[in-house]
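quick one before i forget lol
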Amino acid sequence: MIRLALISSQRALAEDPAGVFGDISTVLTGGETVLAGLPGLAGKAAKVAGTAGRIVDPLNVVTKPLAAGAAGGIPFFG
């Protein structure tokens, strides 16, 4: 059973890496949202998971340069 899951995961990663990383990002950042209010170690772990989720988010490839451009860092027009 585990072997089939690993093979399926490898195939999904090879065929749709952005989708796989998007799913991972959703789980991690969603976990941060739910657990961030907890005190102590659980709250800190949730924040770390949220940071990891933002790192693997495939949309950052698009949104980071656009945010820099909107802030005046990159002149898109003119």
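fyi The radius of gyration is 17 Å.
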